[in-house]
Specification:
220 residues, alpha/beta, Carbamate kinase, 2 domains, four-stranded mixed sheet, 8 helices, globular
Length: 220
C-alpha cells in the first residue's frame, strides 16, 4: 500500500522491483511470494459474515493481482519473470509446476508464486515456506516494515530488544510472532533459515545478500 489506505502504491512497487533487479543482476536466483492484504484479507470476509473459505479464495486472487503488478514493473525494467499460480488461470499465469519453476530460476528468471498454496486456511507465509522448500531455496527473506525480530512490539514498547540471531527453539520458548506458526514449523522441520528484515529501507535487500548484518536470522 505504501502511503495509501488500500491498493497499490506504484512508487513502492517500483522501489521493490528496482531492488530485485539489482539482486538478480548480481547472480542471485530469486523467487517471490506476495501477500494480498492491501487489497483483501480473508479475515475481513469472516468479520462481515462471509464464508471463510470464500474469503480465503478472494484473498488468493488479491495476491495474483499484486503478483501481476510486480511482474509488469519488473519486465518494464527488463527483468525476465514468470508468474506461476496455485489456482489455474491459464490466460495470465502458468500453473505451479516445481520442475518448471526450478528451470526458470536456473535460466536467471524471477519466479513469482501467486494464489498462495491454492488452499483455504493457509497464509501466504505458509505458501512462501512451502515453495521455498520445494525449490530447495537457501533462505527465506521475510520483508516487513520492521528491521527484525524483537522481544516485544517495537512500535508499542520502546524497550523492545532486537535479536541479531535467534534459534527456532528460542522463538517457540519466548512466544515470539515471526510468521504464521504452520509456516514457521515447516521451515524448522526442513532446516530452512529465515531472515526477517525491513524491506522498505532502500538498499537493504542487496546489503543483506552481501552479508551485512541486516534484520534477524532465525536458525536451527
Amino acid at each position: 500500500m505504501g502511503e495509501k489506505q488500500f491498493g497499490i502504491d506504484h512508487s513502492r512497487l517500483y522501489q521493490y522491483a528496482t531492488e530485485i533487479k539489482d539482486v538478480v543482476n548480481s547472480g542471485v536466483q530469486v523467487a517471490i511470494v506476495i501477500g494480498g492484504g492491501n487489497i483483501f484479507r480473508g479475515i475481513q470476509a469472516k468479520e462481515g459474515g462471509m464464508d471463510r473459505v470464500q474469503g480465503d479464495y478472494m484473498g488468493m486472487l488479491a495476491t495474483v493481482i499484486n503478483s501481476m503488478a510486480l511482474q509488469s514493473v519488473l519486465e518494464s525494467l527488463h527483468v525476465n519473470t514468470r508468474l506461476q499460480s496455485a489456482i489455474k488461470m491459464e490466460e495470465i499465469a502458468e500453473p505451479f509446476i516445481r520442475r518448471r519453476a526450478v528451470r526458470h530460476l536456473e535460466k536467471g528468471r524471477v519466479v513469482i508464486f501467486g494464489a498462495g498454496t491454492g488452499n483455504p486456511y493457509f497464509t501466504t507465509d505458509t505458501a512462501a515456506s512451502l515453495r521455498a522448500i520445494e525449490i530447495e531455496a537457501d533462505v527465506i527473506l521475510k520483508g516487513t516494515r520492521v528491521d527484525g525480530i524483537y522481544s516485544a512490539d517495537p512500535e508499542k514498547d520502546k524497550n523492545a530488544k532486537r535479536f541479531e540471531t535467534i534459534t527456532f527453539s528460542e522463538v517457540y520458548e519466548k512466544g515470539l510472532n515471526v510468521m504464521d506458526m504452520t509456516a514457521f514449523t515447516l521451515c524448522n522441520e526442513n532446516k530452512l533459515p529465515i531472515i526477517v528484515f525491513d524491506m522498505n529501507k532502500k538498499g537493504n535487500l542487496m546489503r543483506l545478500l552481501q552479508g551485512e548484518n541486516i534484520g534477524t536470522l532465525v536458525r536451527i
